[in-house]
Amino acid sequence: MSFLQPNGPVIDLGVNIDHVATLRNARGTVYPDPLRAAILAEQAGADVITLHLREDRRHIKDADVIALRPQLMTRMNLEAAVTREMIDFACAVRPQDVCLVPERREEVTTEGGLDVIRYCKEVEAAVKQLQGEGIRVSLFIDADQAQIGAAADLGVPVIELHTGRYAEAGQDQLAHELERIRAGARFGVSRGLKVNAGHGLHYQNVQAIAAIADIGELNIGHAIVAHALFAGFENAVREMKAIMVASRLAAGASTLR
User: Fold this and answer.
1) Radius of gyration over alpha carbons of the chain, in Å?
2) What backbone phi and psi angles, to 5 degrees, belong to 119?
3) Is the pTM of the predicted complex or chain greater than 0.90?
């Protein structure tokens, strides 16, 4: 329980520490240490530590995941592609959560949601293997009713809606993209899913997403790591969490008027 939420959760913040490892790997040093970042994030109010072990190991490495797993006081949310290597590794480490994501080696960052319909058999096999190890599985998908329905049909308890289109939208498309996220979250909850969201969220655009009552958790990394260069890591996490909580509470208050 965070000091920002003395009476229980309002909305959870998952802090993605990938880009701490990106900075470390740029010079091939042992610093900055993703483990230290994770611990500082927890102390500052993070509810989840998120990290993506990519196939090319461009930031987080196997040793990072193994070192972090026993040290975290909150939850580890390991993002992983639907491959035998990644699923087997996740089952060996046994994080509390695994979020299955699409992955292309040439992309700078994840460009869209997992196509659950097209890759249904592969996703279903991965879900069964992970759930067999007691791991909660989430699917990172677009806010599309067909994809959300397919995820629910596979028996996953959680989805994470890709907010990249919202984050990149111009003023003429912003309202449309926000409503698409709202509708997707609403439909996910109606199917019995816990709905999370993330991708491209930062200190100036997170407010509207955090205000959506059907969303339980936001996963944010790049913006926090970037802001930490100027504000310090703990302050960057605290600021993001405070913005999220304030946005949710304000939205709740407005519905009571």
Assistant:
1) 17
2) -110, 35
3) yes
Residue 247 sits at the vertex; the CA angle it makes with 244 and 250, to the nearest 5 degrees, is 145
Instruction: Choose among 91, 20, 21: nearest CA to 56.
Output: 21
How many Cα atoms sit within 13 Å of 137 on the Cβ side? 27
Catalytic one of 42, 79, 160, 217: 79
Catalytic (active site) residue 162:
no
Binding-site sequence positions: 16, 18-19, 27, 54, 59, 109, 200, 221-222
Predicted confidence band of residue 112 (pLDDT cuts 50, 70, 90) = confident
The yes-or-no answer on residue 176 being catalytic is no
Q: To the nearest 10°, report the CA torsion of 234, 239, 240, 241.
A: 90
Catalytic residue among 103, 162, 199, 227: 199
CA distances from 5 to 54, 81, 145 (A): 33, 33, 32
Give start and end residues of each alpha helix (H) in 140-170: 145-153, 164-168
Distance of CA 115 to the CA centre of its chain: 17
What is the Cα 38 distance to its own chain's centre?
Answer: 14
pLDDT of residue 33: 98
Which residue in this structure is represented by tokens 């975290």? 72
The verdict on whether 227 is a catalytic residue reads: no
The single-letter DSSP state of residue 211 is T
- Binding site for 3-amino-2-oxopropyl phosphate: what residues are annotated? 16, 27, 200, 221-222
Amino acid at 161: L
The answer to whether residues 227 and 203 touch, using CB atoms and an 8 Å cutoff, is yes
